[in-house]
């Protein structure tokens, strides 16, 4: 089982380095990058039982600034880096990929189609089979052979099988399934719920996709904080998992999970 | 070097409205600089966000060994839990974190302005400044007398100590904004250091600028992870490049130059 750092939970990599062997992880996924910088507002996170509620404004410095201020360090440290990307249109997504793909040291792209309300965020809607396939096609058209493409889909299990199949048929290398659920901050702001609270929903989503596409590589994400959680995703059919919110609570959690897994495989 | 450790509670004492908690933290003591904070994780499985605390005192050797004192204002779930921990209990501690106060190269007069429990962060700074030969004046403020943080050693070495409370129960009745111009005038400070609510810090930054003094403010915004991973403690600030950025209070701060913060957007 490959362990990844989930998008938006590893800072720029530098902040996680004191607590985790980043060169040894299965992959470090950046926070989602857009063509132009996107600015967050202040109150962005609230707690709920075993969960975090985050206003997902996709706050990021923009792909160009990422390439000058963050990527060189990740490459220098030998971190297997996956750039999470999105955009307002398929052309814009392709433009982000074209830019980031030139970076030495990049392992691949994670196309983020798991955005809860793309309309509100002025983003391409990848929640339909057609919209998802179009975005994947746009990325593959500009993606160098050497880079892999993972596509992240949310937990909406009614649509998942069809959307997953569409993405797989266009030619993505793997699916990242699960993650945060639509939620609201106490003040009513649209947000997403992540953390252990969503683990059962992510397991269901992974199971659904693996049932639909038995041979296709799936990476599970949502609420992982222990080796037992990793194995639960494995039982659901996933070949890898991403760790996200758990890092915010305990930045050393990756090392702990790795040790637990090794201990149990002896 | 930031360290994560299991820190034992060596003492816990109620002083006025706050709980002063002494933690065994040899790793923190060695590398601590005034303005740094520490982050504590709750281990109840329910609360995922970490809690950040100002350091009031650092002792490399006390009767308890190498310890730090943090000042807790019991209010929310995290602070109430921490304030109620018995001696001998352990907490998940990360520190020292954040960017510390920048200290002047020359022994110039400094004014330290602290309101409520946040004033805790100024006491280690005062010690350090006095060691460097800077004449230090203090302006301590709070709503009531039992929210004024004391630091007897520092008070003895300070040139002047002014106390103001909202209800007049200690020192003069008034606020930081009212007392600051006089305190600045009397101290002849070229640098003003401040910790407290952001409205107070905003006032300090403005008044300091009027008087031709530099200001260094320790910002307190909610920090879900404290380690820079989640980008949840966003502060609008103008960088050295004169461009407005969204930066993290925990990683690029918590201490900022007062004239760099875009107070209107905070």
UniProtKB/TrEMBL annotation, chain A:
Residue span, Dihydroorotate dehydrogenase catalytic domain: 3-263
Pathway per the UniProt entry: Pyrimidine metabolism; UMP biosynthesis via de novo pathway
Gene Ontology terms, MF aspect: monooxygenase activity
The entry's keywords: Flavoprotein, FMN, Monooxygenase, Oxidoreductase, Pyrimidine biosynthesis
Keyword Oxidoreductase recorded: yes
Cofactor: FMN
Membrane-spanning intervals of the chain: none
InterPro entries per the UniProt record, alphabetical: Aldolase_TIM, DHO_dehydrogenase, Dihydroorotate_DH_1_2, Dihydroorotate_DH_cat, Dihydroorotate_DH_CS
Pfam families: DHO_dh
Protein name per UniProt: Nitronate monooxygenase
Lineage of the organism: Bacteria, Bacillati, Actinomycetota, Actinomycetes, Propionibacteriales
UniProtKB/TrEMBL annotation, chain B:
Domain FAD-binding FR-type: residue ranges: 1-103
Cofactor: [2Fe-2S] cluster
SUPFAM superfamilies registered for this protein in UniProt: Ferredoxin reductase-like, C-terminal NADP-linked domain (SSF52343), Riboflavin synthase domain-like (SSF63380)
Iron-sulfur is among the record's keywords: yes
This protein's name: FAD-binding FR-type domain-containing protein
Domain of life, source organism: Bacteria
Keywords: 2Fe-2S, Electron transport, FAD, Flavoprotein, Iron, Iron-sulfur, Metal-binding, Transport
Signal sequence extent: none
One Pfam family it belongs to: DHODB_Fe-S_bind
